[in-house]
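Work package 3, deliverable 3.1, input record:
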Amino acid sequence: MTPTPGSVPFDLVEPAARPYFDRWGPGLVVYRPAQPAGSGGPPHGGAWVHVGEDGRVRAFAGKVELGQGVTTALTMLVAEELKVLPASVDLILGDTDLTPWDIGTFGSRSMADAGAHLRAAAAGALQFLRRWAAERLGVEPGSVRLDSGRAMAGEGATARSIPYAELVAGRSRIEPVPSESHPSPPAEWSVAGRPASSRDGAKVVTGAVRYTSDLRLEGMLEGAILFPPTFRSTLRSLETRAAESIPGVTVVREGGFVGVAAPDRATARAARGLLRAEWEVPEAPGEDGIVEYFRTHPKPPDDHWDLDRYAVGDPAAARGASAIALEATYTTAYIAHVPLEPHAAIAEWVGERLTVWIGSQTPFRVRAALARTLGIPNERIRIVVPPTGGGFGGKHAEELAAGTARLARASGHPVRVTLSREEEFTQTYLRPMAVVEIRSGADRDGRLTAWECITWNAGASAIRTPYRVDHQRVENRPTDSPLRQGSYRALAATANNFARESQMDELAARTGVDPVEFRRRSLDDPRLRAVLDAVAARAGWTARPRRRGPRSGPSTGRGIALGLEKGGRVATYVEVEVTASRTVGIGRIITAYECGAIVNPRHLEGQVEGGTIMALGGALGEAIHFDRGRILNGRLSAYPVPRFLDVPPIEVLLLDRPDLPSAGAGETPLIAVAPAIANAIDDATGERIRHLPLLPGGRLPTGARATDFATPKN
Amino acid sequence: MTGRESPCSRPVTGTLRINGRERSISLEPSRSLLEVVRDELGLTGTKYGCGEGVCGACKLLVDGVAVRSCLTPVGEVVGRSVTTIEGLAGDGRLTPIQQAFLDEGAFQCGYCTPGMIVAATALLAQNPQPSEEEILSAMQGNLCRCGGYPRIRAAIRRAARGSSAPPSGDR
């Protein structure tokens, strides 16, 4: 697996100078250039397709496979556009030497970006194949038929055909996507749009897949990093002699980084244990003071994702004049990603060139970060992403890459660093805690009149309401966080939807209108209406006003919520049963999801199902507990992620829209789960819970009524 | 047998029977079976997930029983028969459970899959027709963060029915 020294990353040279044909043999390459960040317009990755004289099609994108099924889906799209069998397509992802630049695998962009651009490149390549086939067959390009990797002309006895391999034999053509190339409409798809399985499934079920933590290089050492007690701690002093006296141990201190490399993991960890470090640990708030801390510690927005402010009309005045007015604050806890494979990286220097194998969602960002941190040019760095055991937004992994590279450089050996589960909890980053304040108004007919939403610390995703309301104001307020936080599958959208869809139910209850009907009255988006109608129909929803007022004893309830994010539309229906001892059983979940043209219904259903289950964890029980910057429950035995017995029957309704572009499905299916459960609990008990997780310690919080600090006007 | 009661770790040479082969290794009896299997024997199908026996990723079979290898000192298995995920398929033929996982698409990232298949293998060996409740309680110690539980259940049901059954209609 050692790369050829001196190889040049393809994305850093002009298309015409890329050594495609040295590496994969003669043929045709059609490419769509990447649009990097800061070049104007939304950034997107590039896409390349190589049609080889060996009969293979190679498709290149900068995305990575984390189990979400992107390999299968992109393979299907390329096979569809090029009219070849999926088995003849090799998809090359997640290798900064070989693939086009890409911003990263997050934000549910793989279908919208890589999918769209690979389709364009493949459709472009087909134009060249058609033209060359027409010349060879002596017919007009329009009368060439293309199927299963062959170009054909004529009928019956005069029919002739040529395989693509023969059309590209001896050529070395590199072309941008021609302007006249048009990918085929999804309604005409014959390969894409049908259920397909992962191609390497046999390796998965026999344990043959090699994740980063399974790889081993000749002469490789194991590394261990000395982590600070809290995220903001700084190193005051370090005594390394005892550790360095162990044979074979190298101690590295560079800037704020301290780590050791040793022949095996036990020795590395023992040596780390002998380091004597003194830390400066700054004061930080605990859980009690955290909401106040956010409100008083604004910080400037990081990037354009943070910037969402929107105002129309005069919401304060409109709310003042409304028959019904509400205000409430909703919060969500810090939670952890808990990918089953903890972070892992291997670094190797061959001469001046560095290769890092790492489970990362953002290999090109890792390359840029290494170039910055180590002071070497991008050309001398290669990042390879092996199969990765889960990401969920948690594996950007830039610092781990840099630390591992430093250990390898100092020790003169390849080094592997694998985090323990406890390190994974305490030393990576968390889903931000969120505070969302909503003030709203409605008239007696159950129509929205005013809407204000201010979000602290979570982010701007899905902060705007999809409901029609003339007077509104939304604002995202980035804040400082005492715990390290970062991206997470559907992070801000989960918080903002929880708040909005909870408040919508509270408004519906006060207007006396059925919650589904209340939403329909202000819902213009036909695609959102379609998912709402689909779950309501499957659930057998019959209209009745939300019950109000406290009830005691066992009871059942139902709840519904919807959301729009990343181009996908979701509605979720939940039934709950609340026992006398205040435990809550989820009886049934129905999720309807629509994300445009479906590429692979089998994996899409898996994404919706898995996303729903992940959302159950954050909705019901997951919470990171902390005090003065320290994480208190950084162990799997102290952090309840969903298990077999926690999962109710889940029905997934997929709405296919071949007339619309394909959007992603990694995140949006999560965002209506928590509010649907909160709404169902309110329906069952009359208690409105405005904090996630809803069931800390497995039960409805006692005194949940006390959390009902909404101030209804009537 | 050197077990938990003697945590002092003087290296000794022992013989492990792994996947039907005798492997002689120099071992410290208190080292975890997981470490030995992965780092010394290079059988990386068995995974580390938590180190405290609550995720199931490290499960392998000891005399046919599913065992959490991260909590098992290697000294405890000397002379016993250990089967890892790599040892289940004989001559490249998948077991009915492996085939059922494939047929149901019962994995996403695949990292939990070896432990899931090992746990399901032990379950069906001992109880070939488990009820739904028996499946859930046998599998409760195995974690899938991708949320593959419905399909994993379907795969176990399918393997229990017999591998010739058609795919479940509602999947």
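Residues 10-184 of chain A form a domain with the Aldehyde Oxidoreductase; domain 4 fold (CATH 3.30.365.10).
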